Amino acid sequence: MLPAAGCLARGQVLPCATARCQPGRPHRYRREAPVQTYVPINLDLPGLHIHCLDPPVFTVDGFLSQQECQELIAAAEGTGRMEKSRIGEGGVQSSVAAVTERRTSSTLLLEGTLLDAHPHLSGLVDKLHTMARKLLPRGAWTESGKLPPPGQFCFESLQVARYHQGQHFLEHEDAFPESFVKENRFQRQATLLIYLNDVDEGGRTRFEHLDIAIQPRCGKALLFYPAFVNGRPDARTLHTAETAGETKWIAQVWVAMGQRAGIPSSAGASRAAPPDEPSPAIELMLSSRRKKGGKSKVAKGFSKSGNGFSSAKR
C-alpha cells in the first residue's frame, strides 16, 4: 500500500519495482544516488489525488470552479478564432505545423494580441496561472510565453481545445525530442490539463503504459511530467485523448524549464527507463510544507502537440 502523502519529505527517495504503477505493492524509503527529479509539487493542496508516483500522475478536484470553466469556454468561443488543431503548432515550430487525422480537435492559442483584445480571457489566464503556482510552488519563475533562462520555469501560452463527438488525439508525448532541446535550450517539464466540462462517454486521457485513464470532470486538473528536470523525455507518459462521445473542452498549459548547454549522457540516472524496464529510484522534490496525515489522497484503484512560445531563439 502506498505511504500517506504527508509522510513524504524532501530528499526522500521512493524506489519502484517497475515503470508501471503497482497497486498494493510495498515500498521502502532510502536515500540513493543518483536520482531523477521532477518539478516540485505541493501535495497539501486540497482536492489532490495521487494516481501514480513513478512516473508522477496527479489530479486535483475543483482546480477551477464551474463558473470559471463556463466563462473560459464562452470567452474562447466568443473570439471566433478557434482553428483545427495541428501537430507542431505554436511559435517555435509554426513552419512545420501540420493538420493531421491523429489530432482532430479545434484549438485556440491564448497569447499576444488575442489577450489584448479580450481582457476577460486575460483575467481567466491569470487566475489559472495563480492556481498553477499554488500547485507547483517552488522554483524561479519567469514571464509567461517567453523562453526561460537556464534553470528557471515559465508557462507556455495557454491553449483551449474543443473535441466534438468522434474527435480524438491519438497517442503522443508532450516532451520535445532531445535534438530539439539541445538546439533550443528548453524542455517541457510538466503538463497541466484542466477539464472544462463533464464528459460521460469517451474522452478520457489514457496513459498507454500506466493503466491509468482520467474521465473529464468540470474543473478537475490533471498534472503529469513529460520530462525529467535534466531535459530527458520520459517515454512512460505516452498518452491518448480518447475519442469523445460528446463535446469535450479542455484548457492546457505546459511548464517549460530552460536547459543549460547539452543534456547529460544516457548513462546511469540520466536515462528515462522504457516502459518495460525497471525504473531507477526517483526523488520526489515536494513542497517544503510537509505534515503528517496530509489531505492528499491516493486515488481508488491506484490505478505532440505544439508549443506556446513566440520564438525558439533567445
TrEMBL record:
<dbReference type="InterPro" id="IPR006620">
    <property type="entry name" value="Pro_4_hyd_alph"/>
</dbReference>
<dbReference type="InterPro" id="IPR044862">
    <property type="entry name" value="Pro_4_hyd_alph_FE2OG_OXY"/>
</dbReference>
<protein>
    <recommendedName>
        <fullName>Fe2OG dioxygenase domain-containing protein</fullName>
    </recommendedName>
</protein>
<keyword id="KW-0408">Iron</keyword>
<keyword id="KW-0223">Dioxygenase</keyword>
<dbReference type="Pfam" id="PF13640">
    <property type="entry name" value="2OG-FeII_Oxy_3"/>
</dbReference>
<dbReference type="InterPro" id="IPR005123">
    <property type="entry name" value="Oxoglu/Fe-dep_dioxygenase_dom"/>
</dbReference>
<dbReference type="GO" id="GO:0031418">
    <property type="term" value="F:L-ascorbic acid binding"/>
</dbReference>
<keyword id="KW-0560">Oxidoreductase</keyword>
<dbReference type="GO" id="GO:0005506">
    <property type="term" value="F:iron ion binding"/>
</dbReference>
<dbReference type="GO" id="GO:0005789">
    <property type="term" value="C:endoplasmic reticulum membrane"/>
</dbReference>
<feature type="compositionally biased region" description="Low complexity">
    <location>
        <begin position="299"/>
        <end position="314"/>
    </location>
</feature>
<dbReference type="GO" id="GO:0004656">
    <property type="term" value="F:procollagen-proline 4-dioxygenase activity"/>
</dbReference>
<dbReference type="InterPro" id="IPR045054">
    <property type="entry name" value="P4HA-like"/>
</dbReference>
<keyword id="KW-0479">Metal-binding</keyword>
<feature type="region of interest" description="Disordered">
    <location>
        <begin position="287"/>
        <end position="314"/>
    </location>
</feature>
<feature type="compositionally biased region" description="Basic residues">
    <location>
        <begin position="288"/>
        <end position="298"/>
    </location>
</feature>
<feature type="domain" description="Fe2OG dioxygenase">
    <location>
        <begin position="154"/>
        <end position="257"/>
    </location>
</feature>
